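Fold this sequence, please.
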Amino acid sequence: MSTLSTDFRGEVLAQIIRNDLVETIHTGHLVMLNGDGSVYKTKGSFDMPIFPRSSVKCFQATAMVRSGLKVSSAQLALAQSSHSGSKMHLDAVLELLALVGLSESDLMCALDKPLGEAERLAWGDKPATRLAMNCSGKHAAMLATCVANGWDIKTYLEPSHPLQIAILKEIEEMTGGPVANKTFDGCGAPLFAVSTLALAKAIHGITTSSDPIHQEVLAAARKHPEIVAGAGRLTTRMMQGVTGLYMKDGAEAVCVLSITDGRTLVFKIADGSMRSFGTIIQAALLEWGITTPLEKFDVYGGPNIVGGMRATL
Protein backbone atom coordinates (compact mmCIF):
# COMPACT_ATOMS: atom_id res chain seq x y z
CA MET A 1 0.00 0.00 0.00
CA SER A 2 1.39 3.41 -0.95
CA THR A 3 1.61 6.18 1.62
CA LEU A 4 0.37 9.71 1.07
CA SER A 5 3.16 12.21 0.60
CA THR A 6 3.45 14.79 3.35
CA ASP A 7 4.06 17.29 0.54
CA PHE A 8 0.52 16.69 -0.67
CA ARG A 9 -0.93 17.22 2.77
CA GLY A 10 0.63 20.67 2.99
CA GLU A 11 0.16 22.66 6.19
CA VAL A 12 -2.83 23.23 8.44
CA LEU A 13 -4.99 26.04 7.04
CA ALA A 14 -8.06 25.65 9.27
CA GLN A 15 -9.07 23.89 12.47
CA ILE A 16 -12.45 22.87 13.84
CA ILE A 17 -12.59 23.41 17.59
CA ARG A 18 -15.01 21.69 19.99
CA ASN A 19 -14.86 22.88 23.61
CA ASP A 20 -11.34 24.32 23.10
CA LEU A 21 -10.04 21.04 21.66
CA VAL A 22 -8.99 20.66 18.02
CA GLU A 23 -11.33 18.06 16.57
CA THR A 24 -10.56 18.29 12.85
CA ILE A 25 -7.96 19.95 10.63
CA HIS A 26 -7.98 20.96 6.99
CA THR A 27 -4.52 21.05 5.43
CA GLY A 28 -3.43 22.37 2.08
CA HIS A 29 -1.38 24.84 0.10
CA LEU A 30 -1.82 28.61 0.05
CA VAL A 31 -0.24 31.59 -1.68
CA MET A 32 -0.90 35.26 -1.01
CA LEU A 33 0.64 37.87 -3.33
CA ASN A 34 1.01 41.59 -2.76
CA GLY A 35 -0.32 44.09 -5.27
CA ASP A 36 3.05 44.24 -7.02
CA GLY A 37 3.11 40.45 -7.42
CA SER A 38 5.66 39.77 -4.69
CA VAL A 39 4.98 36.97 -2.25
CA TYR A 40 3.22 38.04 0.93
CA LYS A 41 2.76 34.57 2.42
CA THR A 42 2.91 30.89 1.50
CA LYS A 43 1.79 27.71 3.27
CA GLY A 44 2.27 24.10 2.26
CA SER A 45 3.86 22.86 -0.96
CA PHE A 46 3.12 25.87 -3.13
CA ASP A 47 5.30 24.60 -5.99
CA MET A 48 3.63 21.17 -6.17
CA PRO A 49 1.38 20.66 -9.25
CA ILE A 50 -2.37 20.61 -8.63
CA PHE A 51 -5.37 20.40 -10.93
CA PRO A 52 -6.98 23.85 -10.69
CA ARG A 53 -10.29 22.59 -12.05
CA SER A 54 -12.85 25.37 -12.62
CA SER A 55 -10.67 28.04 -11.03
CA VAL A 56 -9.06 28.62 -14.45
CA LYS A 57 -12.29 29.36 -16.29
CA CYS A 58 -11.27 33.00 -16.64
CA PHE A 59 -8.34 31.89 -18.83
CA GLN A 60 -10.57 29.61 -20.87
CA ALA A 61 -12.93 32.55 -21.38
CA THR A 62 -10.04 34.86 -22.28
CA ALA A 63 -8.86 32.41 -24.93
CA MET A 64 -12.38 32.23 -26.34
CA VAL A 65 -12.74 36.01 -26.59
CA ARG A 66 -9.27 36.24 -28.14
CA SER A 67 -10.42 33.63 -30.66
CA GLY A 68 -13.44 35.70 -31.73
CA LEU A 69 -16.20 35.04 -29.19
CA LYS A 70 -18.44 38.10 -29.08
CA VAL A 71 -21.08 38.03 -26.35
CA SER A 72 -22.66 40.31 -23.77
CA SER A 73 -21.15 40.90 -20.34
CA ALA A 74 -23.72 38.57 -18.76
CA GLN A 75 -22.96 35.85 -21.32
CA LEU A 76 -19.23 36.26 -20.71
CA ALA A 77 -19.88 35.70 -17.00
CA LEU A 78 -21.83 32.58 -17.96
CA ALA A 79 -18.88 31.39 -20.06
CA GLN A 80 -16.70 31.28 -16.91
CA SER A 81 -19.38 30.07 -14.52
CA SER A 82 -19.88 27.00 -12.38
CA HIS A 83 -23.55 27.83 -12.20
CA SER A 84 -26.09 26.52 -9.71
CA GLY A 85 -28.52 25.33 -12.37
CA SER A 86 -31.34 27.78 -11.66
CA LYS A 87 -33.91 28.59 -14.34
CA MET A 88 -32.01 31.81 -14.99
CA HIS A 89 -28.83 29.89 -15.68
CA LEU A 90 -30.41 27.22 -17.86
CA ASP A 91 -32.35 29.77 -19.91
CA ALA A 92 -29.16 31.78 -20.41
CA VAL A 93 -27.30 28.73 -21.71
CA LEU A 94 -30.08 27.95 -24.18
CA GLU A 95 -30.16 31.57 -25.31
CA LEU A 96 -26.41 31.59 -25.96
CA LEU A 97 -26.66 28.38 -27.97
CA ALA A 98 -29.62 29.71 -29.96
CA LEU A 99 -27.67 32.84 -30.89
CA VAL A 100 -25.30 30.69 -32.94
CA GLY A 101 -27.96 28.34 -34.28
CA LEU A 102 -27.30 25.49 -31.84
CA SER A 103 -29.30 23.74 -29.14
CA GLU A 104 -28.87 21.66 -25.98
CA SER A 105 -28.21 18.56 -28.08
CA ASP A 106 -24.93 20.10 -29.27
CA LEU A 107 -23.49 20.28 -25.75
CA MET A 108 -20.90 17.60 -25.02
CA CYS A 109 -20.34 18.22 -21.32
CA ALA A 110 -21.05 15.47 -18.80
CA LEU A 111 -24.57 14.67 -17.63
CA ASP A 112 -25.38 16.04 -14.20
CA LYS A 113 -28.05 17.49 -11.96
CA PRO A 114 -27.85 21.11 -10.76
CA LEU A 115 -24.93 22.05 -8.52
CA GLY A 116 -26.85 24.41 -6.23
CA GLU A 117 -28.40 22.77 -3.17
CA ALA A 118 -31.83 24.37 -3.62
CA GLU A 119 -31.74 23.81 -7.38
CA ARG A 120 -30.79 20.14 -6.98
CA LEU A 121 -33.55 19.63 -4.43
CA ALA A 122 -36.09 21.22 -6.77
CA TRP A 123 -34.81 19.03 -9.63
CA GLY A 124 -35.93 15.97 -7.70
CA ASP A 125 -35.86 12.63 -9.46
CA LYS A 126 -35.59 14.02 -12.98
CA PRO A 127 -32.65 12.52 -14.90
CA ALA A 128 -29.35 14.35 -15.19
CA THR A 129 -28.87 16.47 -18.31
CA ARG A 130 -26.02 18.27 -20.02
CA LEU A 131 -27.87 21.56 -19.70
CA ALA A 132 -28.10 21.25 -15.90
CA MET A 133 -24.39 20.46 -15.59
CA ASN A 134 -22.65 23.41 -13.91
CA CYS A 135 -20.17 23.86 -16.78
CA SER A 136 -22.82 24.06 -19.51
CA GLY A 137 -22.30 27.83 -19.83
CA LYS A 138 -18.61 27.31 -20.59
CA HIS A 139 -19.44 24.59 -23.09
CA ALA A 140 -22.04 26.78 -24.80
CA ALA A 141 -19.41 29.53 -25.11
CA MET A 142 -16.90 27.01 -26.48
CA LEU A 143 -19.42 25.99 -29.12
CA ALA A 144 -20.14 29.64 -29.97
CA THR A 145 -16.40 30.22 -30.40
CA CYS A 146 -16.22 27.25 -32.76
CA VAL A 147 -19.10 28.59 -34.84
CA ALA A 148 -17.43 32.01 -35.05
CA ASN A 149 -14.30 30.38 -36.49
CA GLY A 150 -15.87 27.64 -38.59
CA TRP A 151 -14.27 25.02 -36.33
CA ASP A 152 -15.74 21.55 -35.90
CA ILE A 153 -18.32 21.46 -33.10
CA LYS A 154 -18.26 17.69 -32.68
CA THR A 155 -14.63 17.50 -31.56
CA TYR A 156 -14.34 20.74 -29.55
CA LEU A 157 -13.23 18.83 -26.42
CA GLU A 158 -10.30 17.09 -28.13
CA PRO A 159 -6.89 18.40 -26.98
CA SER A 160 -5.87 18.78 -30.63
CA HIS A 161 -8.85 21.04 -31.43
CA PRO A 162 -7.87 24.66 -32.27
CA LEU A 163 -9.95 25.94 -29.36
CA GLN A 164 -8.21 23.74 -26.80
CA ILE A 165 -4.81 24.60 -28.25
CA ALA A 166 -5.66 28.28 -27.79
CA ILE A 167 -6.75 27.67 -24.19
CA LEU A 168 -3.56 25.77 -23.35
CA LYS A 169 -1.49 28.59 -24.88
CA GLU A 170 -3.33 31.15 -22.74
CA ILE A 171 -2.81 29.14 -19.55
CA GLU A 172 0.89 28.55 -20.21
CA GLU A 173 1.48 32.19 -21.05
CA MET A 174 -0.25 33.34 -17.88
CA THR A 175 1.38 30.77 -15.57
CA GLY A 176 4.80 31.36 -17.10
CA GLY A 177 5.70 27.88 -18.27
CA PRO A 178 4.60 24.48 -19.52
CA VAL A 179 1.87 22.67 -17.61
CA ALA A 180 2.86 19.70 -15.45
CA ASN A 181 0.09 17.29 -16.45
CA LYS A 182 -2.65 17.06 -19.07
CA THR A 183 -5.93 15.21 -18.55
CA PHE A 184 -9.68 15.91 -18.60
CA ASP A 185 -11.91 17.75 -16.15
CA GLY A 186 -15.16 16.35 -14.78
CA CYS A 187 -17.12 18.18 -17.46
CA GLY A 188 -15.05 16.56 -20.20
CA ALA A 189 -12.90 19.55 -21.19
CA PRO A 190 -9.08 19.31 -21.21
CA LEU A 191 -7.51 20.05 -17.82
CA PHE A 192 -3.95 21.11 -17.06
CA ALA A 193 -1.95 20.89 -13.81
CA VAL A 194 -0.01 23.89 -12.49
CA SER A 195 1.44 24.78 -9.10
CA THR A 196 -0.45 26.90 -6.58
CA LEU A 197 2.23 29.58 -6.96
CA ALA A 198 1.97 29.58 -10.77
CA LEU A 199 -1.81 29.80 -10.49
CA ALA A 200 -1.49 32.75 -8.10
CA LYS A 201 0.88 34.52 -10.49
CA ALA A 202 -1.57 33.92 -13.34
CA ILE A 203 -4.50 35.35 -11.37
CA HIS A 204 -2.36 38.35 -10.36
CA GLY A 205 -1.36 38.74 -14.00
CA ILE A 206 -4.87 38.77 -15.41
CA THR A 207 -6.01 41.12 -12.64
CA THR A 208 -3.32 43.73 -13.27
CA SER A 209 -3.10 43.24 -17.05
CA SER A 210 -3.68 46.16 -19.39
CA ASP A 211 -4.99 43.74 -22.02
CA PRO A 212 -8.60 44.80 -22.67
CA ILE A 213 -9.65 41.17 -23.11
CA HIS A 214 -8.34 40.26 -19.67
CA GLN A 215 -10.13 43.22 -18.16
CA GLU A 216 -13.37 42.42 -20.02
CA VAL A 217 -13.42 38.86 -18.68
CA LEU A 218 -12.85 39.78 -15.03
CA ALA A 219 -15.21 42.77 -15.23
CA ALA A 220 -17.99 40.47 -16.46
CA ALA A 221 -17.53 38.14 -13.47
CA ARG A 222 -17.47 41.02 -10.99
CA LYS A 223 -20.58 42.56 -12.56
CA HIS A 224 -22.58 39.30 -12.60
CA PRO A 225 -21.56 37.22 -9.56
CA GLU A 226 -25.00 35.62 -9.45
CA ILE A 227 -24.28 34.15 -12.88
CA VAL A 228 -20.76 32.98 -12.07
CA ALA A 229 -22.12 30.89 -9.16
CA GLY A 230 -25.67 31.41 -7.88
CA ALA A 231 -27.95 32.59 -5.10
CA GLY A 232 -26.55 31.80 -1.66
CA ARG A 233 -23.21 30.47 -2.98
CA LEU A 234 -20.00 31.68 -1.32
CA THR A 235 -18.47 32.98 -4.55
CA THR A 236 -21.54 35.10 -5.24
CA ARG A 237 -21.77 36.40 -1.68
CA MET A 238 -18.12 37.38 -1.58
CA MET A 239 -18.13 39.23 -4.90
CA GLN A 240 -21.35 40.99 -3.94
CA GLY A 241 -19.97 41.93 -0.53
CA VAL A 242 -16.44 43.10 -1.39
CA THR A 243 -16.03 45.86 -3.98
CA GLY A 244 -13.55 44.91 -6.70
CA LEU A 245 -13.25 41.28 -5.66
CA TYR A 246 -12.88 38.56 -8.26
CA MET A 247 -13.35 35.00 -7.04
CA LYS A 248 -13.69 31.56 -8.59
CA ASP A 249 -13.78 28.17 -6.94
CA GLY A 250 -12.96 24.80 -8.42
CA ALA A 251 -13.86 21.21 -7.65
CA GLU A 252 -11.74 19.34 -5.10
CA ALA A 253 -11.39 22.53 -3.07
CA VAL A 254 -9.41 25.00 -5.16
CA CYS A 255 -10.04 28.72 -4.78
CA VAL A 256 -8.64 31.83 -6.47
CA LEU A 257 -9.45 35.45 -5.73
CA SER A 258 -7.98 38.88 -6.32
CA ILE A 259 -8.59 42.55 -5.63
CA THR A 260 -8.33 45.12 -8.42
CA ASP A 261 -5.03 46.43 -6.99
CA GLY A 262 -3.47 43.00 -7.65
CA ARG A 263 -3.51 41.42 -4.22
CA THR A 264 -4.16 37.73 -4.80
CA LEU A 265 -5.10 34.68 -2.74
CA VAL A 266 -4.98 31.12 -4.06
CA PHE A 267 -5.34 27.92 -2.07
CA LYS A 268 -6.02 24.20 -2.43
CA ILE A 269 -7.44 22.11 0.44
CA ALA A 270 -5.82 18.68 0.45
CA ASP A 271 -8.91 16.70 1.49
CA GLY A 272 -11.10 18.24 -1.22
CA SER A 273 -13.61 19.75 1.23
CA MET A 274 -14.77 23.31 0.64
CA ARG A 275 -16.25 23.87 4.09
CA SER A 276 -13.25 25.90 5.29
CA PHE A 277 -13.32 28.30 2.33
CA GLY A 278 -15.27 31.10 4.02
CA THR A 279 -13.17 30.98 7.18
CA ILE A 280 -9.86 31.01 5.27
CA ILE A 281 -10.92 33.80 2.90
CA GLN A 282 -12.25 35.93 5.73
CA ALA A 283 -9.03 35.57 7.73
CA ALA A 284 -6.72 36.14 4.76
CA LEU A 285 -8.47 39.28 3.56
CA LEU A 286 -8.66 40.62 7.09
CA GLU A 287 -4.85 40.56 7.14
CA TRP A 288 -5.07 43.07 4.30
CA GLY A 289 -7.66 45.15 6.11
CA ILE A 290 -10.50 43.97 3.89
CA THR A 291 -13.81 43.16 5.55
CA THR A 292 -15.82 40.33 4.01
CA PRO A 293 -19.36 39.10 4.59
CA LEU A 294 -19.41 37.21 7.91
CA GLU A 295 -18.61 33.52 7.45
CA LYS A 296 -19.25 32.02 10.87
CA PHE A 297 -18.88 28.25 11.21
CA ASP A 298 -20.48 27.07 14.46
CA VAL A 299 -19.98 23.68 16.09
CA TYR A 300 -23.01 22.45 18.03
CA GLY A 301 -23.50 20.25 21.05
CA GLY A 302 -27.23 19.71 20.87
CA PRO A 303 -28.83 23.16 20.50
CA ASN A 304 -25.81 24.95 21.99
CA ILE A 305 -22.75 26.36 20.24
CA VAL A 306 -19.68 24.64 21.71
CA GLY A 307 -17.04 25.57 19.18
CA GLY A 308 -16.29 26.75 15.69
CA MET A 309 -13.72 26.93 12.91
CA ARG A 310 -10.61 29.08 12.86
CA ALA A 311 -8.05 29.75 10.15
CA THR A 312 -4.38 29.08 10.90
CA LEU A 313 -2.62 31.31 8.41
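The mean pLDDT is 97. The radius of gyration is 19 Å.
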